[in-house]
């Protein structure tokens, strides 16, 4: 009896782990096969080449960090601030954040990845605008609040500053209240 084939999704998951840990150069067929405990021959039953795997990895990251997040947030419901907080928690979770940061870094060197990131960020910003529009009708103010919120969500992971007697969570809460103030 032949050994069962390693499922396609496991190659993609292992590729995403490698991407998060070491960027796109770490996504190597031989390394993935070794991590999965299989030969690299099974890879070619699913993917034409490494580029095809990278494209499917981006598709998976894209779907998980946009459609899947928003579907879950909308299913759980709540007011606009609750939904925005939940979307940020899911989007920048321990599972998705390392991939998101790796994609952002990768996009600096690959125009196709930069285009994908732009689409994903535009999708996220559109959703955030929708949420913030419930408390802010002025278009200029809405755009500014949306950019501030999105910038804080991303930059928070790069800033190592202390906040005196306040915790980072306390400061983020003040920002959320101000962004969602009428």
From TrEMBL:
GO molecular function terms here? DNA binding
Q: Which Pfam families match?
A: TetR_N (PF00440)
* Sequence ranges assigned to domain HTH tetR-type in this UniProt record: 5-65
Q: Which SUPFAM superfamilies match?
A: Homeodomain-like
Q: What are the protein's UniProt keywords?
A: DNA-binding
Determine the domain of life of the protein's source.
Bacteria
| DNA-binding feature ranges | 28-47
Q: What is this protein called?
A: Transcriptional regulator, TetR family
According to its UniProt entry, this protein's organism is Geodermatophilus obscurus
């Amino acid at each position: 009896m032949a050994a069962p084939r390693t499922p396609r999704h496991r190659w993609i998951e292992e590729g995403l782990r490698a991407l998060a840990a070491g960027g796109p150069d770490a996504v190597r067929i031989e390394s993935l096969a070794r991590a999965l405990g299989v030969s690299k021959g099974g890879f070619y039953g699913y993917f034409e080449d490494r580029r095809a795997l990278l494209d499917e990895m981006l598709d998976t990251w894209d779907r998980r960090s946009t459609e899947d997040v928003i579907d879950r947030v909308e299913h759980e419901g709540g007011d606009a601030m609750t939904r925005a907080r939940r979307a940020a928690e899911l989007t920048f979770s321990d599972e998705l954040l390392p991939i998101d940061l790796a994609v952002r870094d990768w996009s600096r060197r690959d125009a196709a990845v930069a285009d994908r990131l732009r689409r994903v960020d535009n999708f996220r910003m559109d959703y955030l605008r929708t949420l913030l529009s419930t408390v802010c009708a002025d278009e200029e103010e809405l755009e500014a609040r949306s950019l501030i919120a999105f910038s804080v969500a991303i930059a928070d992971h790069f800033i190592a500053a202390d906040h005196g007697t306040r915790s980072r969570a306390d400061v983020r809460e003040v920002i959320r209240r101000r962004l969602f103030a009428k």
